Amino acid sequence: MKKTICEYWKAGLITLPTKPDKSPDVKGTWKGGVKDESFYKHGIGIICGEPSGGLECFDFDNHFADAKKTLSEFITGEVKEIYQKYKIPIESTLSGGYHLLFRCDQVEGNQKLAQRPKKDNHGRWIPDVIIETRGEGGYFVAAPTPGYKLIKNSITKIPRITSEERQILIEAAKSFNTWHEVKKIEYEQREKPGDIFNSKPESIDEMQSCLVRAGWEETSDKQWRRPGKNKGISATLGKVAPNVFYVFSSNAHPFQDNSAYTPFQVISLLDHGGDFSAFAKILSERYLEHPPVSRPAAKKKKDKSESEYEGILKRAYINIEIPIDKPPIIMYIRDKEPGRAVQKRLFTLGNYSVITGKSKSKKTFLNNFFLASATINDHIQGKIFSNFPENKRAVLMFDTEQSEYDAYVTAKRISDLTYDNPPNFGAFNLREYTPQERCQIIDYSIKKFKDSIGYIVIDGIADLATAINDEHEATRVVSLLMKWTKVYNCHITTVIHQNKNDNYATGHLGSAIIKKAECVISVKKAENDSLRSEVSCDMIRGTMDFNDFDFEIIDNLPRIVSMDSQIENYDLPY
Fold first, then answer.
1. Are 89 and 150 in contact (CB under 8 A)?
2. What's the rounded Cα separation, in Å, for the pair 346 and 367?
3. Are the CB atoms for 432 and 401 separated by under 8 Å?
4. Which CATH class is domain 2-174?
């Protein structure tokens, strides 16, 4: 032990003697450390913070007998990159826990990073720390104290990491927290609109959609990153409780750090500027038997006259003696069949299609193929072919989810794929508007370009509805799609997420949209390649399914995988 003490001091680690119960074995203060080896009867403690050059210790406690599992899950992703880059030392502790050691110019006092609920002797739930720090003003017991052992790298060569890297470690540790205290507000008391909403399954989906609209990104299962941040974790969703959004970032306005939020609170803060009463009013109209008197639907519409109904029937009558032409095919997909390549029908005018997939499956990249092909009215990478009439060459894209920058990158990708800056393509970012306003803007745009509009992409369609599980809202949005495509004789491709636990499109809205679609295409991540996605035809009306194919992302552009570069010698359908 004497040799180790000497080595620690030479390495700039200030030590103190400890008793078997881990308390300091000194008389008076221990702040300056104890260099005299004769005072060390049992164990060694290392002082953290400024005395030891900015030393900090992450202490993984083993109170639930799973510290090894917690540490293994902690050292993944960005944390693993930092760990491997600096060869951060790890030691095991007497109780089966672990210490992870590093230096940094920025060191704070001791902090509790993650806690877990446990019952006390009276059966009450209390928080129990599973990850904490030893920083300025603190110390930890170290090897070769009995029961402590260095297991990885060198404790006399503790690396210095950056403040940004330290923040990544702290945020990753905080993501293991499962203790929370949700402070319910007035509108979430029993049987109030917020309480009813929080108890509904759709509240989680609507909260996730709201977060995405606000620029939050789901980095992995249950872990989220705030807008404007490229690395690290800022919050968890569903980890401390199934419908609780737990924020630990101090820069996640309008949320407070180390605070838990219900779906009602998240949507009120992000979509309604913190006006809880405004969202409560919307929910009361959705759920309660006696909605506010001001509800528009309370006004009974005047019934149409017989002459009006006669006119409607006359316009809707199907005269089988007058042939109706097939809707023009405006987009094909090239497939390989035995001994030849064929083009199969994909989209027609007067209909709409749906792209579904889980978060981050690269649905938007697939849309880029369709948009680029429609814009140049030609093929893209020998896979997607367009054949729009000359009076239907206008192409519009409406992005409802992404930030201004990300929407720009998506739109710019069309010119990169076509090697041009096509004048017939227009992209619009509608993220800042309400669902009703988005519908009105799209309606106005289609009317404005009605004489030339041929193809439209709405990414994502869920943001045109106030709630994805409201049947009335689902009917309203689907009716708009059918109206726009028929009245203006165009094709619209919509994008909607799939549920996390199955492959169904989310909510009543997803079900309703798919039922009336001409074609439903699904996208999923490839299992062993994060840059590759797999595309499948789930349903197409009136023609054969196209074969599955893959695409990959190279230099932020989608590229078809395993397709011949030649585009000649294909057969047209029919």
1. yes
2. 13
3. no
4. alpha beta
Distance of alpha carbon 474 from its chain centroid, rounded?
23
CA atoms of 218 and 238, how far apart (whole Å): 12
pLDDT for residue 566 is more than 50 = no
Secondary structure class of 222 (helix, strand, coil): coil
3-state secondary structure 166-189: HHHHHHHHHCCCCCCCCCCCHHHC
Q: Smallest Cα–Cα separation from 369: which of 332, 405, 400? A: 332
Overall CATH class of domain 329-571: alpha beta
Classify strands 384-386 and 245-247 as parallel, antiparallel or unpaired.
Answer: unpaired
* φ and ψ of 399, to 5 deg: -105, 120
Question: What pLDDT, in 10s, does the model give residues 531-563?
Answer: 899 999 999 998 999 999 999 999 989 999 864
- For 406, phi and psi rounded to 5 degrees? -65, -35
The structure tokens listed for 35 are 């260099």
Q: How far apart are CA 285 and CA 281, in angstroms?
A: 6
Predicted local confidence at residue 436, as pLDDT: 87
The pLDDT assigned to 288 comes to 63
Q: For residues 349 and 454, is the Cβ–Cβ distance under 8 A?
A: yes
Output the pTM of the full model. Answer: 0.52
Torsion angle of alpha carbons 480, 483, 489, 491, nearest 10°? Answer: 30
